[in-house]
Write a structure and sequence with these properties.
Blueprint lengths: L21 E5 L2 E4 L4 E4 L2 H4 L8 H11 L13 H13 L6 E5 L2 H18 L6 E5 L8 H5 L18 E3 L7 H12 L4 E6 L3 E2 L5 E2 L2 H13 L3 E5 L14 H4 L5 E4 L11 E5 L1 H6 L19 H16 L2 H16 L8 E7 L2 E6 L10 H11 L2 E2 L6 E4 L7 H19 L4
Parallel strand pairs: 3-15, 5-6, 5-7, 7-10, 10-11
Antiparallel strand pairs: 1-2, 2-3, 4-12, 8-9, 11-12, 13-14, 14-16
Helix pairs in contact: 2-10, 3-10, 6-7, 11-13, 12-13
Bound molecules: pyridoxal-5'-phosphate.
Amino acid sequence: MTRSPVWHPFTQHALEPTMKKVVGTEGAYLIDEAGNRILDAISSWWVVTHGHRHPTIMEAIRTATECYDQIIFAEYTHAPAEDLARGLIAVSPAGLEHVFYSDSGSTAVEVALKMALGFFHNTGRRRDRIVVMEHGYHGDTIGTMSVGERGVFNAAYEPLLFGVDRLAFPEPGTEQSTLDAFELTCRSGRVAALLIEPLVLGAGGMKMYEPSLLGELSKIAQSHGVLLIADEVMTGWGRTGTLFASEQAGICPDILCTSKGLTGGTLPLAATLCTSEIFDAHLSTDRRKTFFHSSSYTANPIACAAAVANLKIWSQEPVQARIDRLVALQGTRLARFAEDRRFRNVRQSGTIAALDMAVPSDGYLADIGPRLRAFFRERQLLIRPLGNVIYLMPPYCVSEAESDRLYDAIDEAASVLIGTPA
Ligand SMILES: *Cc1c(COP(=O)(O)O)cnc(C)c1O
């Protein structure tokens, strides 16, 4: 077989020379060319919410292609973008009143940072520092790497990354010191925004913290005039048990980023929502105050139609009940590992379950990672541990029996790969 010219993401081709070819998807499954049904326990990198190819969304995409392809989004608008913006505002935390479209989570965050800096620039205030949380992940562009955790992923690009202020992750018992550090940083008067993943730091290792902490951070930000940017790219669309994770902390972020589940996992689309205050700071007859940002495919009508269909599913189908069922299911299945010494930090936030395998070396490049991945792959399960962190984030249609297969495989993987500790 000749070698493929395709360069895959986050892939070391020297160690993984061939890819499995997928010929179709259905519900919680990928179907490969040999006819194997692979259980997608990570929702194809966290994008698929209801299940692959939900008929309502696929139908909306087909219908949209009868009218639209791409339409320039300056000077012109279209119904899918208008309907989606109104629908998003209706289901988002109070105070978010404007919607800016782009096409990925990374661009949604870049837009958020530019909105925050533009807000202070246009109102004549010198605030340009961004505060983030340790272990955060916000994307892989130069800007979003700058605000994310530094490490092996971005060592080569370090010279191009800009500096930010980092808060220690609030491990249980250290919450107050994280809050104190934030308060102190805000006192400089130079902080424009706190950028944070609400409740769960995803790619940084499924690290979870309490909603109350997010509430406290929001209060501090507010008292210092610091904007709160909620990066809900992963946590949005029900992952943590509520449509947006911010709801659980009762906070109203100034800016909210959404992407992955926005189209139910069908087409690339992102939205950055903001308050009127931020929009109005860019509203002027002085053209220098324009928000200078665009992607060629901004507000692609077909992707917007898919997202409108997703909103329709949320309003017409018992999505919340399905999520509640999955939250309970993850809870009962995860419980068997709570006292198991082969694992540490057994944890859950809504539909996301995570546990760390107790191995001497951890971190993303821990040897156990690829071995676990191969173990699961042999069993037709798509589970990609983050180093020694195993997590399950399945689509909401996953059944009890499918869930049992996942947890039994994790149990067996621990027995085979690390044995039983003394
Ligand atoms: C995935 C992710 C991003 C980046 O999204 P892309 O669509 O991959 O660019 C940003 N923030 C968070 C929290 C994410 O999980």
